Structures are given as C-alpha cells and as structure tokens.
Predict the 3D structure of the following.
Amino acid sequence: MPWVRIESGAYWCVFVAAFLGVAIWESYRPRRSLCVSTEHRWRNHALLLLVCTGVSMGVYRASPVFIAASVAGNRFGLLNKPWLPFAARCILAVFVLDLVKYSLHRACHSVALLWRVHQVHHSDPDFDVSTTFRVHPIELIFTQSGYFGAIMILAAPPVAVLIAELASTLLGFLGHANARLPEWLEGPVRTIFVTPDLHRIHHSEEIREQNRNLADIFSWWDRLFGTYVPSPAAGQAQMITGLTGFQSSRSLDFAFMFLQPFLPEHRRGAAEDTRMAKGN
C-alpha cells in the first residue's frame, strides 16, 4: 500500500531527527543531573525498544496507518460519512485518537493489573529522552490493541493517523527531555501541547503527581478531565523522579525491566489503595 511506504519513511525520519535533536538539546542544556551514565541508560532502554518492536511486529504484523488504509472504505466508520468534510474528519481523528491514548494511559494508572506492567516505565530513577523507550511489551500489546480498535471504529483517514503518529513520536521525545523550554515559551506551548516540565511531574515519586499530566500530545485533556497539575509540590529542582525503592542502577538492568511486572508487588495495602483513590 502506498500509505504504508509513506508512513515508514516519514516515521523513521521524524523518529531519528526528533531523538537526535532532543538528545543534543538535553546534553548541552540538561535540566537535572542524571544518577546513572547516559551510556548505560541508552543501551538497556534501546534493547527494550528492540524487544517491543519485535513483539509488535510478531503479534500485529500491521501499523496504525496500515489499519487505517484497510478500513478506509468502511461505511460504518464513525468518521466515514459523506456529509462530513474530509478536513473535518482528519482534525477530529487526530483529536479523538489522542484522547484514546490519554484514556489508555489513565487506565494504566487506575487498574492494578495494568499498573504492574506500566510501572516499568515509571521505575526509571532518572528522566531523559531514552525513558521514552522504557515500555514493557505487555503494555505495548494492550495500548496498541486499544489504539488499533479506535482506528477501525472511527475509520480514521490514513493521513490523519499518520499525522497523529508523527506528532506522538515528536512529542514523546520532547516530553521526556531532560531539558526545559525558555520561560517565555513554556506558558504558551503548554496551553496546547505537553512540555518536558509538564510530563516530568508525571514521573514524580509522589503518587498523587504520578496520576496527573497523562496526556500524550494535547495537554488540554488533563485540564478537561481534572488530571492537570502545573508544577510539582517540591518544585522541579527538588522533585524526585521514579518509584520509591527503585532509585538505583539496578532499575536500569534489562532483566529487571523485563521481569518487573512478575516480581512481588513492591507497594501493597494502604499505599496501593491511596494510588487508586488519588487516580480517580
């Protein structure tokens, strides 16, 4: 399919350019000092990315744009209506797909079983562009299933899905940057998009802050659904990232990241009840 070839080329161009751009930015203007060397972090996080990519290709054998192109002629699709202008279909698709990602992310923090898997992402003792890769294969299967399902139900235009994927890739790297936007730019940008200072709060050690700032591309979903917080209680400089008890280099071992969902629960009882209560 032509759309698949376009997606592949555009995705990898944005992926490489965004990653390198953010990596250079945070190298020259780091927001915080890292506890573990960049070399160690990048090597193991990249290995996890390769495993996730292999699992995704083996399970689905399809990409978001491929799914969209496959259902483009579905007259039952919610957005595939002749009376709806094509431009409006594309804009709505981008917004709705981002809302789906927000909802899936919120589920990962609200459902105990999903949190056991998602905590792999949060157990990173530091926070930099490589944290973007720190996703467990089981979580990837869950989120891709929900996302692919949404694309099919909507019959979203392939071009809209491509735009959403490229924006998510770019904002994913930007949101995990160990850097900050200039003060004069931070306010206007975060009104619409997720910024590094906003998403870093989501990686706070504080449970209440972990359940905030869940958006992927557009920050307004957090404001709309009451999960927005503009700054951490301890301040950006003093805020501790990661999960309690996991602030060590061991948390960056590949074996630990892969096996963490199957290990005995680190926090039980009142602490987990508090997580669920504050996540709602």
The chain has one domain: 2-279. Residues 2-279 form one domain.
